[in-house]
Every structure is written in C-alpha cells, then in structure tokens.
Input
Amino acid sequence: MDHNSNRTTPADALVVFGVTGDLAHKMIFPALYAMVKRGILNVPVVGVASSKWSLAQVREKATDSIKQAGKIDDRNALDHLLSQLQYVGGDYNDLGTFKALKQTLGDARYPAHYLAIPPSLFATVIKGLGAAGLADQARVIVEKPFGRDLASARELNRIALSVFAEDSIFRIDHYLGKEAIMNILYFRFANSFLEPIWNRNCVASVQITLAEDFGVKSRGAFYESAGCLRDVIQNHLFQIVALLAMEPPAYQGFGAVHSEKAKVFQAMRPLQQDDLVRGQYAGYRKEPGVAKGSDVETFCALRLFIDSWRWAGVPWYLRSGKCLATTAAEVLVELKPPPQRLFDDSAPVAGRANYLRFQLSPNSAVALAARVKRAGKEFVGDQRELYLLDEQPGEETPYERLLTDAMAGDGALFTREDAVEAAWAVVDPVLGTHHKAYSYKPGSWGPKQADALIAAHGNWHNPQLPGAAE
Ligand code: BG6
Output
C-alpha cells in the first residue's frame, strides 16, 4: 500500500474513540485540559462512541472528569477545550458512523485517531477508518493491550499496517511516558561509570516489582479477559526490562533505541510453566464481572533470562499484583558480593550485596547502596544508600506527554511492531498453559510460592513507602 508519510506534520484534529468510557474520564480529559493550559492543544477534538449522548452530556462528562482529577484552576482553558469538543455517536460496525465522523472533521487533513476502546474493537475501527478514507495522512494511536497473544498481535499489526504506515501507528504503553522510566534510559547512557559493571560479570540479579494495594475495582470483566500477565507484565514491566537491559543505541535518535529494545525481547528466553507463579487475591471471585470459578491471575511473579552476551545467566525476577501491601514500583539491580570474605559482616552474611535501586513510583529516585564502616575498632559496617532524589515539580503526566507526541508525529515513546511481537513471543507459551493461580491474602505480598521462585537468588525486595519499616 502506498502511504503518504506525514511524520512531522502536526495533527490538525484529535479524534477520541471511546470518549464516553472510563479511560477518557480518568486520563484523557485531564490530559487534554493540561495540554490546553500549556497552549499546545488548539485543534478540534471529536469524541466518538456508540452511546447516544448529546454534545452537552459529553461536555458535562469532560468537566466532571477534570474536576475529579484535580481542580479547575483555569476556567478559560476549560471553556476553550469544551468549545473545541464535538461528538459523533454510532456503531463502530456501521460505515455510516465513519462517514459522519468525516463530515464532522470537515477540513481537517491530518487527524490523529485515538482508540481508547476495548482491544476487541481495535481492528473494526481501524478498518472503518480505512474504508471511509479517514486514514490517508492520518495517525492512529492504539491503547494497550496490543493483541492478547502472539497470533492476535500479528493479526492486529497486519490490519493496522494495511491501513496506516508504521510511522503513523502510535502504540501506547503509558509507562514509557513516565519521568522515572525515561530516566532509566538517560541514567544508563548519560553516565559512563555504570557500563563496566552493567553485565553478567558484576550483576547477580535484577528484580522489578510493580505493586498496587487496590483490587480490580470496576474492571472485573476486563481483568477476566486479561489477567496480570497480559495487563502489566508483557508491556509495562517488559518495557522497563528492555530499558535496563538494552545495548547502547548506535546514534542519537529513537530509531536506534527502538532497535536495541527489540533485540532485548528477541533475546529473552520464552517462559516455561515453572518460571511463573500466578496468584489471585481472596475475594477476587466476588468482584463484579468476575466468574465464580475464575482462575485468572491478579498476581504474577516470574523468572526471566536474556540470552545475550551481556546478560547470559543473570536471572531477572518480575512481580506485580493487585491488593498487595502497598502501591509502589521499584527496580533493584543487585551486584555480586566481593569475591573474598575479608570482613565478618561481608555479604551475604549481612544481607544484600551492593545494589542500584530505581524507585519509579510513588516517588522517583535512584539509590546506590554501598557498605561503609561503622566507627570503632571492629571492621564491621552498614549498607548505606547514596540517594538521588529526582522529584521535579511540573512534570507532565504520561498521557499528556504521549498524546502531545503522537499529535506532533514523534514516535520516540511508543512501541514498534517488531518489539511488541517479540515481547508476546516470550509470554506466549505460558498464556494458556500454566499452573493454577494460588490464593493470597489482600494486603500481603502475594502467595508464598513466589518466594520459592526467587529463593535460589535471595529474596524479594519489597518497596517501602517513606516511614514504613521493611
Ligand atoms: C494499566 C493497567 O495499564 O496500568 C492497570 O491496565 C494498572 O491494571 C495500571 O493499574 C498501572 O499504571 P500506573 O500508572 O497507575 O502505575
């Protein structure tokens, strides 16, 4: 197909499919409001949904969403956003809906179509856009999860690429728009001291934990079709792994970063059943939309290997879950202990060896732990952290940043076709074939079987909120 590449032409309209939905309410309207406040959203915003809503209702919903996300501190910005809003209601299977959208878009020549809709509808809408002639010179922004296994991701990529060029497809993983995660890439390659130790010679293991202290809330039905592995591991956590594990990009430009990240996924060993512990919090089966006998996991712990020159033999432990003890995300890169025990308290006797810790949320920080001697005659000491606090006021939210980038045609913080498929290939063997989910108590750190998974290399590091004791 001959696509008209329009990489850097700014979008002259934003179309939000699923405008009456949950994602739009929670994330998108607040992001659009912030963009208007910063003066970077000055184009029509056309909401599309199957609901029979009036424009007034959509405006009301937008106002309510912005209020709930914070406060309305710029009335002019809100009025401006509301005045830019339009609404097209209709069935996504009906070409008439897309024709009505075309009419509403009027003179806009470079629309950005944002699919904030259930993944099962992605293909239908992309085909509809193509059939109505709404794809030429346009971009499409696709929410995660992109596919639900390797085969469906391939099929979705095939359909998307039959309508849009790869550089007009923006696959969102909002973790890539987070400051603390962008800083992993920066911290690794803006400093030279890490490189000599950042490999199998010095790194003993890497752990990543993404913990949430709340359940599936109103998303039971979605969760039943996804589960933790599809919801956050194959995408958010794998993206973090890729940034930590990738080789230095060959040049300054995000094409090089995309290529190196894809190689990490390609070098990951496909998961086996015993690499994965699945858990389900007690009470999940009573959540609305959840099957009584559900075996869907709300917790995952897994062991991963990257069979590359740099990482051969280093285990990567990933863990995420709902209803855990806290809400936080952290990376712990544990280094090997010194080769000889010269002091009574050398690791592992005194606990963990030196490590580098990336705290990703709720605060963002980088900490480097090293042992220092305690005052006194004895050669004993403590592990202390050199702590770089990286809180920067005025940070954009991921959605604000990613929508701004997609509208400007900047694909740096999005995922590429080959990387998405390679990431699916890693989890594909255990999506359907796995051990049953173990029950765990809400407020805990998941089932005890997850501890056994990591036991050969120590124990899980539980992220702590300030003031809490480990
Ligand atoms: C979403 C998942 O992609 O990420 C949710 O669907 C999860 O289940 C969320 O809660 C976590 O994102 P954040 O930005 O709150 O850490």
The chain has a mean pLDDT of 93. Residues 92 and 125 are 6 Å apart (CA to CA).
